[in-house]
Each structure stands twice: as C-alpha cells, then as structure tokens.
Specification:
Blueprint: E1 24-26, H1 43-54, H2 66-88, E2 91-93, E3 99-101, H3 103-122, H4 126-132, E4 134-136, H5 143-151
Helix pairs in contact: 1-2, 2-3
Length: about 170
C-alpha cells in the first residue's frame, strides 16, 4: 500500500454498484514551440528539456506550470553533477581522519526524492499519469471517435439502450 492508499482493483474483480470514472481524454494539438530552458543547464539536461516539450505529456502543461517544470530540470542537472562527484569518490576523509561516505551522496539521495515527487506531480511516470486520470489520445484518433467508442459500451447487444427502460 502506497502513501495515498491502495491501487484500484482491476475491473474484472470490482464489486458493487459504482462504475469507475472514465479517464480524461486529451485531444492532441499541434506541437507548439517549447519555452527556453532555465539558464546554465548542461547539454544533457537541455536535451531532456527539449524531449519533454516534444512529448504528449507536455501538452497538458500550462504557463503557470513553467516554474515547477524549470525547477525539475535544474534538479536533474544538479543530480547529474552530484552523481559524477560521488562516482569519483564514494568515501572521503572525515574531520578527524575517519573514512565516511561522501556528503554529496546524501545530497544526491535527497535530490532523487525531490525529483521523484515532482515527476509524480507532473505526470511523468506511467503510474502517476494513471493516478491523475490522464489518458493521452492516440494521434490518429479524434475526440469524436473516442466519444463514439465510449457511447457504444452503454448500448446492450440487442440494440436497446437500458436507460430508456427507466423512463
């Protein structure tokens, strides 16, 4: 069980009268030019920034999300720099000459936790997208096609709409 409760049961194992909420379907719009990355990012972090803005998930982001997204990519850059230092020297001499773990390793560990939290908030992992209820539509399907396919599930095999029996 995670921090926010257990994962939902698969539809085949669910019991009760409640139906699962349908996922929000986002219509893909043509890619917009992406915003400039935060200053002084490494080449790898800049490439990741560009890849993010080319992805379908970025189409959900709005202008108010830019500071959080920028902070995430600055953290990516800082994490990579910290890991480079830790890879060179995992242990260092302490103040009294004892051997101890490099303090930058602790910093990298804390950064990794903050990065994961922001990734989950922004829907950058498959599970976080599912928990947020985001389903990015396939490029070739229109929103009308998806609505038609969802409405056909409400009609029984005999062609009658069960909702009409209630009227």
């Amino acid at each position: 069980m995670g921090r926010r409760g257990p994962l939902p049961k698969p539809p085949a194992r669910q019991a009760g009268h409640r139906k699962p909420k349908p996922a929000a379907v986002l219509e893909l719009v043509p890619a917009q030019p992406y915003p400039l990355p935060p200053v002084k990012l490494s080449a790898a972090a800049t490439a990741a920034w560009k890849a993010y803005w080319r992805s379908d998930v970025a189409r959900v982001a709005s202008e108010v999300d830019l500071p959080v997204i920028g902070r995430l990519f600055v953290m990516y850059d800082q994490y990579e720099q910290a890991i480079e230092v830790v890879n060179k020297a995992l242990v260092v001499k302490g103040s009294t000459g004892q051997i101890r773990v490099n303090p930058i390793a602790d910093y990298a560990y804390k950064l990794a936790g903050q990065i994961l939290r922001l990734e989950e908030e922004l829907g950058l992992t498959p599970l976080s997208r599912q928990r947020l209820g985001i389903a990015v539509a396939e490029k070739y399907r229109s929103l009308d096609d998806l609505n038609r396919s969802l409405s056909t599930h409400d009609v029984e095999d005999n062609g009658e709409d069960p909702r009409l029996a209630l009227a």
